[in-house]
Design goal:
Largest sheet: 7 strands, mixed
Structural class: alpha/beta
Shape: globular
Strand order of the largest sheet: 3-2-1-4-5-7-6
Radius of gyration: 17 Å
Strand content: 5-15%
Helix content: 25-40%
Order of helices and strands: HHEHEHEEHEEHEHH
Number of helices: 8
């Protein structure tokens, strides 16, 4: 009997689809990267997904975030994502957390119940805390390094954090994780040198949480999110390319 995942099953097989259907994935950060990761995970048959983000959809998100439309402006991002998931696969079990993930809010989450964690948040402190908690529970995690201020979607690659270079955020993460004796972390990063965004006083006033508002576009964060989702799917199923 045909269903929404029949075409995926032609490539993965029934056993792999059952693994995806039984998996629970947590996506921290439902923005340009995280939103597209959620989209691909749900369309791939992930059966349960947790959405974590305390932000609302802003008009400036429309250029790059799949959940952002004129209709969803003002909604919490997790709520907009949950509504979209329900339209794609109403059988998916979705939990939403209007939470800004930091060490102080980590106790809300049981990291042992996840089959995979996606780190698509912006703050270094939050990213480190996520990796620490995932490592402590033995839960696989993949982290997005900086996607802002970049123009080349073909430059992104999957690597261990200790094999990265050029990327400033990766450098900080390498240093901090090494201090914490965390031996490995799968990341998606780019060696492309980031552009310096044009200073726009109006945007800066509307986004007071940031020292400098990064520029972004429709085709870089989306690619990072899709790469991340692909890695999660391959790791959960054990499916390799060109098997």
């Amino acid at each position: 009997m045909l269903n929404e995942f029949s075409r995926t099953e032609l490539l993965f097989g029934k056993e792999a689809m059952e693994k995806l259907g039984n998996a629970r994935v947590a996506v921290f950060g439902i923005g340009g990267v995280g939103g597209y990761a959620v989209e691909a995970l749900v369309r791939s048959g992930i059966g349960a997904i947790d959405l974590i983000d305390n932000d609302r959809v802003c008009i400036t998100n429309i250029n790059r975030q799949i959940i952002a439309t004129k209709k969803t402006v003002g909604q919490y991002k997790v709520d907009a994502a949950a509504e979209r998931i329900a339209e794609i696969n109403p059988d998916a079990a979705v939990r939403t957390f209007r939470t800004f993930y930091m060490p102080e809010t980590a106790e809300q989450f049981d990291f042992s119940e996840y089959d995979y964690i996606v780190d698509a948040i912006d703050t270094v402190t939050g990213k480190i805390a996520l990796v620490e908690n995932a490592y402590a529970k033995g839960t696989p995690i993949i982290s997005s390094m900086a996607a802002g201020n970049k123009l080349d979607p073909t430059a992104f690659e999957v690597a261990d954090i200790y094999k990265t270079s050029v990327c400033p955020l990766s450098k900080v993460m390498r240093y901090e994780l090494k201090k914490r004796n965390i031996p490995a972390l799968k990341v998606v990063y780019s060696k492309e040198k980031p552009l310096v965004p044009i200073n726009d006083a109006e945007i800066s006033r509307e986004c007071p949480k940031r020292n400098q508002v990064p520029g972004s576009n429709a085709f870089v964060p989306s690619v990072v999110g899709l790469i991340i989702a692909g890695e999660v799917i391959k790791d959960i199923t054990g499916i390799e390319q060109n098997r």
